Amino acid sequence: MIELDGSQGEGGGQVLRTALTLSALTGRPFRIARIRANRAKPGLMRQHLVAVRAVAAVCGAEHSPVDVGAQELEFHPGRVRGSEYDFDIGTAGSAALVLQAVLPVLLRADQPSRVTVRGGTHNPLAPPMHYLERVFGRVLRQMGVNVEFELRRFGFYPRGGGEVAAQIAPCAHLRALDLVTRGPAQNAYAEAFVAGLPSAIARRELDVVCASYQLGEANCRLCGLPADQGPGNVLLLTIDYMHVTELFSAIGERGVRAEDLAARVVAEARAHEASGAVAGEHLADQLLIPFALAGSGSFSMSQLSQHTLTNAEVVQRFLPVTVVFTRQDGRTLCTLEPGAVR
């Protein structure tokens, strides 16, 4: 039984999600206490509760009774089975984070799977679904994974109501990658989605981003959504490099000018470009599990966050890999190599 302290490191929901995923993949049970102890509202929120139930469903796990607010969990995984799964968060909690928890597990299933999740698709505290498809999904495909994402309906905070789906084929062995350099930028485009709000908001956001990156009209896209998918607004800037894709986003907020929101996206993108790194802060977190499952690999990142350090510690509790962080040419290099389980 692996014992985990949910307050370790950054003390958020990632400790729980990573433990769930790796427990299901390795067959090793775990017990976690003080779940999300460092958050303003400790314990399970709806999206974390659904992640527990989702991973339990795909691997036939038994676990201790839990509900919203629970701060302890004991989890005993069973056999992973491919099938059609349907999960409803019931709030604007992140559908992308629930998908991220079950996706690696289903790579070890006995047949292809289709997973549908309803909840939030674009909220301030999680990667948008476009990020999962374009950024994380691209790396997974380079590793040999056959996965397709579908955004069926937008779900903005605080209303939610979005729907996403993923088709996942089994993949017994992931290809190890060395993503140290990203290569030159090959394409860039900006999108502003708006639902139930004046389209002028999106236009003002795009004017800032497209002027900053000198994007032509075809790469500067105003996307109106049905009003019943709002109210909500999200601005995306996607940059395709030779070896990787990165996406920068911001969710519209009441009281924040469209121009200021767009300037925030541009500043984040410029900082990442200046770093020369392959992975931004969010992608670095997401790469740890697939790279660990491959058994080795490396990638450069723009910054080493407490979130990433915490995730690396949990990974090493379940899998026989050693995660090493070093500084190289002004960037942080993450290297995974075979090692002993801690």
Q: Mind explaining what this structure looks like?
A:
This protein is 33% helix and 29% strand. The chain has 342 residues and is of the alpha/beta class. The strands form four sheets. A four-stranded mixed sheet has the order 1-2-4-3, with helices on one face. Strands 5-6-8-7 form a four-stranded mixed sheet, with helices on one face. The protein is globular, with a radius of gyration of 19 Å. It starts with a strand and ends with a strand. The model has no long low-confidence stretch (mean pLDDT 93).
CATH fold call of the largest domain: UDP-n-acetylglucosamine1-carboxyvinyl-transferase, Chain
Q: Enumerate the spans where pLDDT stays under 50 for 5 or more consecutive residues.
A: none
Strand % is 25-35%
Distance between the termini: 13 Å
How many DSSP H or I helices? 8
What is the CATH superfamily label of the largest domain? RNA 3'-terminal phosphate cyclase domain
* Radius of gyration over C-alpha positions, nearest whole angstrom: 19 Å
Number of strands: 16
Largest sheet composition: 4 strands, mixed
The backbone outline, from C-alpha atoms, is: globular
Classification by helices and strands: alpha/beta
Order of helices and strands: EHEHEEEHEHEEEEHEEEHHEHEE
User: Class of the largest domain, according to the CATH hierarchy?
Assistant: Alpha Beta
Which strand order does the major sheet show? 1-2-4-3
| Helicity level | 25-40%
Architecture of the largest domain, according to CATH? Alpha-beta prism
Chain-averaged pLDDT: 93
Indicate how many domains the architecture comprises.
3
